[in-house]
Write a structure and sequence with these properties.
The chain is α/β, with parallel strands linked by helices. It has one domain (about 5-225): 3-Layer(aba) Sandwich (Rossmann fold). About 45% of the residues lie in helices and about 15% in strands. It is built from nine helices and eight strands. It has helices at about 10-25, 35-45, 55-65, 90-100, 105-115, 135-140, 145, 150-170, 195-210, and strands spanning about 5, 25-30, 50, 70-75, 125, 175-180, 220, 225. The chain has an eight-stranded mixed beta sheet with strand order 3-2-1-4-5-6-7-8, sandwiched between helices. It starts with a strand and ends with a strand. The relative contact order is 0.15. The model has no long low-confidence stretch (mean pLDDT about 95).
């Protein structure tokens, strides 16, 4: 039985990913900051709940102790940051987003690494975004309409991508990849995306179900590889 933990799994892409993996036979831990919402989601999904706030060291360590063993970690929790002009952004705005999207992902991976290293087929999926691709942001042939002005969110996902590549090389026994779900209709973007939530979750599930011979240090979306 494969044991999987998904951060931010009480709604949207995390919830749908949990639903699909439960259907595939995974024992899924719905990790959420809010106990009431997390337990409700887990009950609906036939999953297990663990309280986990990715911005809190003690919360993450307690979650790792409670879970006890793990094969697949999906770092899904993320926030978009404030929607305001770039000249109005503050250092605190950047810190708030990075604390979830970058430091939070590191905090969880670091705490769960001993459990993953004890697995026969450890997998990590970092949920990134096409907006984190420096290649796409600087290539005039793809920059429009793929690019939007989101310096905090985009740079946080670029940082997450580098963490993915670095840790994949540091821990070659693990399969560690970043995924771009695409522009999906979630509350994250006020349901403006052109993909359904199941369509967005497809690449997350695909990379979460690889075995020890699967890819590592890659950045992928449903249509194929995303340029770094």
């Amino acid at each position: 039985m494969t044991t999987t933990l998904i951060t931010g799994a009480n709604k949207s892409l995390g919830y749908e990913t949990a639903r699909q993996l439960v259907a595939l036979g995974h024992t899924v831990y719905v990790a959420a900051r809010d106990p009431e919402r997390g337990r409700k989601a887990a009950d609906e999904l036939g999953a297990r709940f663990v309280q986990l706030d990715v911005t809190d060291d003690e919360s993450v360590r307690a979650a790792a102790k409670e879970v006890g063993q793990l094969d697949v970690l999906i770092n899904n929790a993320g926030i978009p940051g404030p929607f305001k002009p770039a000249n109005e952004l503050t250092v605190q705005d950047y810190q708030d987003v990075y604390d979830v999207n970058v430091f939070g992902a590191f905090r969880v991976l670091d705490a769960f690494l001993p459990l993953l290293e004890a697995s026969d087929a450890p997998v990590v999926v970092n949920v990134s975004s096409g907006l984190g691709s420096i290649a796409m942001a600087t290539d005039p042939t793809v920059r429009e309409p793929a690019w939007i002005p989101a310096p905090i969110y985009s740079s946080s996902k670029a940082a997450l991508n580098m963490l993915t590549a670095q840790y994949a090389h540091l821990y070659p026994a693990l399969r560690i990849n970043a995924v771009d779900p695409g522009y999906t209709a979630t509350d994250f973007n006020h349901h403006s995306g052109h993909q359904t939530i199941p369509e967005g979750a497809e690449i997350i599930v695909r990379l979460a179900t690889i075995d020890r011979t699967g890819p590592t240090a890659t950045y992928q979306r449903s249509a194929g590889v995303v340029p770094w």
